[in-house]
Amino acid sequence: MSALVFDKVRVSFGHGARKFTAVHDVSLRVPAGRSVGLVGESGSGKSTLARAAVGLCEPRSGSIALNGTELVNARGRALALRRRVQMVFQDPSSCLDPRMSVGASLVEAIRAAERRDRRPGTVAGRSAQIAGLLESVQLPSAKAAEYPGALSGGQRQRVAIARALAAEPAFILADEITSALDVSVQGSVMNLLKELQAERGFGLLFISHNLAAVHYLCDDVAVLRTGRLVEAGATADVLHTPKQDYTRELLAAVPRIGEPLFA
Amino acid sequence: MTATAISPTPTTTRAQAAPNAWPRFAIRRGGQFLVSIAILITVAFLMLQMIPGDPARQSLSPTASPDQVAERTQELGLDQPLATQYLAFWKGLLTGDPGQSISLRMPVEDVIASRLPATVELALLTVLVVLAIAIPVGLLAAALTKGGRRRGLELTFNSASGLIASAPEFLIGVGLVYLFAVNVPWMPVAGRSGPASYVLPVAALSIGAIAALSRIVRAEAMDVLSSDFMRTAAGKRMPVLRKYLRHALPNLMTSTMTNAGLFLGSLIAGTVLVESIFAWPGLGMTLVQSIRAKDFPLAQALVVVYGAIVLMINLAVDVLLAVLDPRSTIKDS
Amino acid sequence: MSAAGMTGRWRSALLTPTGLAALAGMAVLLFLVVLGPVIWGDISTTTNPAALSQKPSATHPFGTDAGGRDVFARTMTAARLSVLMALAASAMGVLGGALLGALPSVLPRPLGRAILAGVNFALAFPGLLITVVLSVVFGQGVLGAVFAIGLAILPAYARLTSTLAASVGGRDFVAAARVLGVSRAGMLLRHIMPNIAAPLIVNASVTAGGALTAFAGLSYLGLGVQQPEFDWGRMLNEGLLKIFVNPATALAPGIAVVVSGIIFTMVGETIARATGVTRTFSDKLPRLRPREISAVLTIEDNNAVLQVRGLQIAAPGRSRWAELVRGVSFDVGRGELVGLVGESGSGKSMTCMAVAQLADHPLHVSAQSIRFDGQEIYRGTAPAGSRRAVSRLLGTRLAMVFQDPMSSLNPSLRVGGQVAEPGFLHGGLSRRAAWHKAVRLLGQVQIADPERRAKQHPHELSGGMRQRAMIAMGLMGNPALIIADEPTTALDVTVQREVLTVLHRVHRETGSAVLMISHDMAVITGFCTRVMVMYRGRIVEDISTEDLVAGNARHPYTRALLAAVPTLETERSVPMPTIADGEDFDTDLRFDLEHRFAARRQSTADKDAIEREGAHA
């Protein structure tokens, strides 16, 4: 069974007196085909952990492995394997290059995948692929000619997901991808992720501060606090019968519709 | 407004001043200054070496005999190995004896000692005038034109300040000379004698800088005025003057001082031109004369002096900024 | 942006006074560069011993120089050399600088850092000084001057490029490209360069103007162009010697330098407008027609702390008004907890800013009437009554809490002073007394060690503390209403709870009403007793929380919005209910007034007032 495995990962920034450790020896397993929620408040290190997996920052110690292959400082074949881990970001206003059409953004991703797999691509093949990708994120293929400025926030996040899919990922790390969206759009992005996962079988690390979203989408949950893993387990267990005080505190703080905050 | 969700902003504890921030700042910034001075001196030394052809011959008249060339070569030390020359250059500067001026036939240090005060006076006076006028003007312009109101005034301010700022000091200087020498001969237009003689050179140097700095102050002020905390201040319904002076101005000081520092540097450089126009007996006029006369030892020394003044100004501005805005020291180091 | 939009922007940028002047100026410069020496070349070099240093006359509009040559013809001829030198030096500085500045984002880190350190060192020195030093090295003449000035421009441009590149490099799409495995060169060419090109081009044209004057200065010093060649600076140099005899000889090249400099600057400004570096909106839009209020709503209701009737807010675009709030009417009762919920762009924040009279130019705010605390504060398009009285009323009786507690507090001032300010501005307290009250209030909003915190600056406080300090600031007066605009959106849930607790306590203890704006249904329904839902600039639902939660919402949008919120009880096996992208609930305008007030008739809050309204209607 393949999996993305974080083992005692530690990430810190700066040196000496200014050293700041964002992630403290966190171990976490994202099995293929499952979705794992990573929850925590700001500064808990949840984004940093994901960024380390795709090489956007470098752990000081520990290992991140995909099917047993080390991804930290990957070169050659390991690097090609790391490209099977893709990330989708929070901010829909900066996730796409404003000067590139949707089609151009997707072509870039398709070509990168072709280079990785050392297979030639054709113009016709790529445009067919673009149509397919857009279809899979439920966007009309005419959107390929549009620029991000003409798209809504939800549509941009869909394109960003399509771009990640172009790399035929084994794992997708979704970093607060619904947080900046209106609630009416959040649901459709979550539905999309769920459908895609069922269809393509990638493993999903869903990073969010929104416990309800994690509850809806994820099989397992890990709770982070100031860079340390507090609790992990099956979603139903962690979110309905939490073992740790911090998780309980976190759950208690979440306002619920119709439940008066103050008696 | 959607959820501006959780972003990895630094926590407050990290933003707090470390107790040893000041010594760290002093060491870092002081070290940077010394390295810059060393590079400056090296560049000034290399300036002579990089001149295509033979500097010794160039510094003489075209009819000079080979003996004269050989003598000048020796005088400039160009017959020595490069390393020896370099060391001698450092030694000369450190001992306050950088050599003999070819054109003026006197020690370089004496030339500098007699010309430096005039330039420093001119520069300091100009800086005071620029800051005293540019900051209020820029702030006022921002207050009157924020949020796209008073388009006419904005256009007038932008074109007038743009026009003045893009007219170089020396053109303004020439204009002033023309105006006061030819049409209204109220002010002396040349030399340095008595308070009245300062008026035109200071004006020539400051007018452009005032225009440029007030543009920057206005732009910065527009940013500050549209910020959330100014909305908070507006919510308190305070008198206009208090809103601008107490709430907006302190937030402008960091960027204004940073820019003023840059202007100060170019102001110092501007003295080179303005002194030439008003026959102001300062370093700038001397630098131009030395270059035209191929008086290399004097030119090299003056480049070091000018560069050192600029570096010291930058240092002073950084220290001032650190005092005004403690966050800046912490941010950079 | 589409191609048509691009052309439209260029056209509207060119059709401004600046744009037209830039276009005309460029045409003149081009003409002089190409044809100047052809037309005036011979005259400009013909010496005339019979007409040395003549004053302006019909034959010589700017007189003649010391060699008897026509100054006007020389100025026209010198345009080619002057402009071309400026362009050559700018091209050198701009291209070299852009290359040097972009390299650090592609090269290995230590190398990039070394380049930046070199650039920063060079930047410490003013361009003129570098130019003078370089002119020693390169010697005097056209080529030397071009090299000297070109190299002097380079560091500033390199710095600009690297700053811009770094800001683009930090954006998510670059990170995404890295994760995909796009090469460094591809990143530079496809992502970074296209995104920084516009500001670089704008600056390049300004740089060219600066280079032009720099050449004039250099030639003026005698370090630039040498005889027999001449540019404007050289002519200025010669003219100045004769300034007492014949000022026009210096005037002509002087004008040429200034005018060309301005042309380059205007070209830059035009490009900035056309490429969207400078944002524009039209200030010549036709007057906005106020929204008609169909129902007659009574105003005299002393039970309400806030009454808004027919509020309309519009923002100017490039060709028409965008109406953000479309005739909104609502009440907030004394001591009532009211929520205003809606999605981005619904106009909820704008509504509150307008009520607080903080909606700034260029927004257009009009209202049939806004009454606050028993006094009319806004009517038509302007504040009602005396400005002083309205300011005092709003300053003491209205408190505001904004979304971002960091940016809402002044970073340069101490927290205590900021909290205390309303006390001595309106409360008649001495500064000292206001400070003491501020410290007390900081303690009251659960800030530990308020004495010490009051003396600190905002950046030394946590986000939750800052937000509570904002609440304390509002308490300096005696607020009848607290408007809280997304007060906890930027905060973590645990901190959110603390802030809401403090806000609720303040409401309980002082009896002040709270109008809370939020996108978060859970926060709104948990905090408020009545909820108004805003959709595309209208209030489409006005309902008690009880009814809302019980599923009695009337408007389909409210029901859809409520269903779309995931909870910890949401069934995982079925898809989330969603609102489709193009779905339009904006069908029935009359719903806004009639249904709402009919609905309110049944609600418990201020029943009498509603009945009176009903009688009038």
Task: Describe the protein.
The complex is a heterotrimer of chains A (263), B (333) and C (617). Chain A has helices spanning 46-53, 76-82, 102-117, 123-136, 153-166, 183-200, 211-217, 235-240, 245-253; strands spanning 3-13, 20-31, 35-39, 61-66, 69-70, 85-88, 171-175, 203-208, 220-225, 228-234. By secondary structure, chain A is an alpha/beta fold. In chain A, helix 6 (183-200) links the parallel strand 7 (171-175) and strand 8. Chain A starts with a strand and ends in a 10-residue tail after the last helix. Chain B is mainly alpha-helical and 333 residues long. Chain C is built from 23 helices and 11 strands. The two termini of chain C are 48 Å apart. With 617 residues, chain C is an alpha/beta fold. Helix content of chain C is 55%, strand content 12%. Chains B and C meet through helix 2, helix 7, helix 8, helix 10 and helix 11 of B and helix 5, helix 8, helix 10, helix 12 and helix 14 of C.
The computed structural class of chain B is: mainly alpha
Low-confidence stretches of chain C: 588-617
- In terms of quaternary structure, the protein is heterotrimer
Cα separation of the termini of chain B: 36 Å
Explain briefly what this protein structure is.
With 263 residues, chain A is α/β, with parallel strands linked by helices.
Topology:
The complex is a heterotrimer of chains A (about 260), B (about 325) and C (about 625).
Chain A: E1 3-13, E2 20-31, E3 35-39, H1 46-53, E4 61-66, E5 69-70, H2 76-82, E6 85-88, H3 102-117, H4 123-136, H5 153-166, E7 171-175, H6 183-200, E8 203-208, H7 211-217, E9 220-225, E10 228-234, H8 235-240, H9 245-253
Parallel strand pairs in A: 3-8, 3-9, 6-7, 7-8
Antiparallel strand pairs in A: 1-2, 1-4, 4-5, 9-10
Helix pairs in contact in A: 3-4, 3-5, 4-5
Chain B: H1 12-15, H2 21-49, H3 55-58, H4 66-75, H5 82-94, H6 108-145, H7 151-166, H8 169-183, H9 196-225, H10 228-235, H11 240-277, H12 283-292, H13 296-324, H14 326-332
Helix pairs in contact in B: 2-13, 6-9, 6-11, 7-9, 8-9, 8-11, 9-11, 11-12, 11-13, 12-13, 13-14
Chain C: H1 3-14, H2 17-45, H3 71-102, H4 109-123, H5 127-138, H6 142-169, H7 172-180, H8 184-220, H9 232-241, H10 248-274, E1 304-316, E2 321-333, E3 337-342, H11 348-355, E4 364-372, E5 375-380, E6 382-383, H12 387-397, E7 398-401, H13 405-408, H14 415-425, H15 431-444, H16 450-454, H17 463-475, E8 481-485, H18 493-510, E9 513-518, H19 521-527, E10 530-535, E11 538-544, H20 545-549, H21 556-564, H22 591-602, H23 607-616
Parallel strand pairs in C: 3-9, 3-10, 7-8, 8-9
Antiparallel strand pairs in C: 1-2, 1-4, 4-5, 5-6, 10-11
